[in-house]
Amino acid sequence: MDEFDNNSLWDAVLAELQVSLSPANFQTWFRGKTWISTLSNTEVEINCSSPYNKAWIEQRYLEQIREIVERLTGRPQNLLFSVSSRLVTKPSHKASPTESVPLFTEEPLDTLKASLQSANINEKYSFSNFLVGQCNQLAYAVAKAVGEDDQRRYNPLLIYGGVGVGKTHLLQALAQSVLVRRANLKVLYSSSETFTNDMVEAIQKKQTIDFRSKYRKADLLLIDDIQFIAGRESTQEEFFHTFNHLYERGKQIILACDRDPSELASLQERLKSRFVGGMVAKIDTPDQELKEAILLAKSKEMGMDLDFNLIRDIAASMGSSIRELVGALLKVTAAASLTGKSPDRELAKSVLTLERSVKPTPGKILRAVADHFSIPTETISSNSRGKAVVLPRQISMYLLRHHLNLSFYEIARLLGGKDHSTVIYSVARVENLVENGGEVRSLVDEIERAFKT
Ligand code: ADP
Ligand code: MG
Asked: With DSSP H G I counted as helix, E B as strand and the rest as coil, what are the percentages for the chain, rounded to 5?
């Protein structure tokens, strides 16, 4: 048997794990976050940088690690996991070139801070606190590659996915990683609404030249929530030219959208084709594993030591938005600190009503809408054209989309086989009405309350 010391044994284990895990998982859970603290003939103590890291590794990788360790050392081993808050020293094995995240900036800190600020980047969103699972692996990998590489191989990069799945986080992290390397690059992050507002204001103040140069001098332009320019003709016109201007000069453009742009009914075709003309990465709704990992990470950040079963319950019963998930966690921890109770299942149940947030079925949603408008459910799902069913049907489409994330085709099929573009239009219409906060907003609120109970 080869004689290993702590470092060489762990390096060998890591080398094997690296081959069998996805790069993102390896990097998230193992690289630089684990090491062997004690090694005896019968016992290996593996130190993890945080409780969530420990819980995660124990839950998912224990047997795999045991198998490798026992094979390498040639004897049965008792594996222990511990947490140490000491700074993790970088393990001696080399990082592959694609994963060379700079740990410190070569730029003076003040310059970097100023650049982040003028680019509209919030430091709290970084790659290092972005957790990676199946659903976001591609988007993460591409965003990282774009952040580290000046070749413009993925231009434009479009990241799309539902609400609260981490699009803004990725865009911001990407911009930050670029500025950390090159603080004097002109980076600009903006939402499409800010773009629109800037444009309107510039027109009013007759300062369109300033407006144009603001967006057109960027080396890296990131436009978030691009879906909001759909339907706004003059904004689309202006953005089309901004896009072309940058693209032709080899500048990098990154966009985020809350859905596949082809599903944006009122987005001009020429923009659609440009948006998807480079690299497109979709973020799917997070799976249970990732939701748990995020809850663990966030609770750790907040200094809470939550029971793993509670984490599991919250992850299982909350919807697909990570924002909501984190919001739920905040509620539980706030309630715990206000009442002095421990953050357990009991407390979580009382503030979150966990069971109630289980996903409704399409049938339940349609019934709630039908009841609310006092019409038979069949009328909504039939293809009758009566005026009285237009709004109920549109609201149904909106709810099916928002609560169950059904595709436009599925919704069309559920509701009497309408054309899917009708669905796209209807959902957008109700979205607008809900956003404007009028009568439809309260209607929708009431119906949602009904099918959630
Ligand atoms: P979106 O822009 O897609 O609506 P955000 O990027 O605003 O979503 O994400 C919502 C919240 O969830 C943010 O606080 C963000 O930091 C967090 N979040 C989303 N995805 C992840 C992830 N993979 N790892 C850690 N935090 C995440
Ligand atoms: Mg966002």
From this structure: 60, 10, 30
Largest CA distance in the chain: 81
Phi, psi torsion values for 33, nearest 5 degrees: -115, -5
Does the C-beta of 214 come closer than 6 Å to ligand 1? no
pTM assigned to the model: 0.64
Q: How far apart are the first and last CA of the chain?
A: 62
> Which pLDDT value is given to residue 144?
94
Q: Output the pLDDT for position 98.
A: 39
Confirm or reject: Cβ of 172 under 6 Å from ligand 1: no
Residue 359 C-alpha to ligand 2 middle, in angstroms?
Answer: 23
Which stretches in the chain have pLDDT values below 70? 1-2, 24, 51-52, 85-108, 353-358
Judge if the beta carbon of residue 286 lies within 6 A of ligand 1.
no
- Is the distance from the beta carbon of residue 191 to the nearest atom of ligand 1 less than 6 Å? no
Give the Cβ contact number of residue 223 at 10 Å: 27
Q: Is 158 in contact with 282 (CB distance < 8 Å)?
A: no
Choose one of 169, 222, 301 to mutate for the ligand 1 pocket test, by most ligand atoms within 8 angstroms of C-beta.
169
At 158 the three-state DSSP class reads: strand
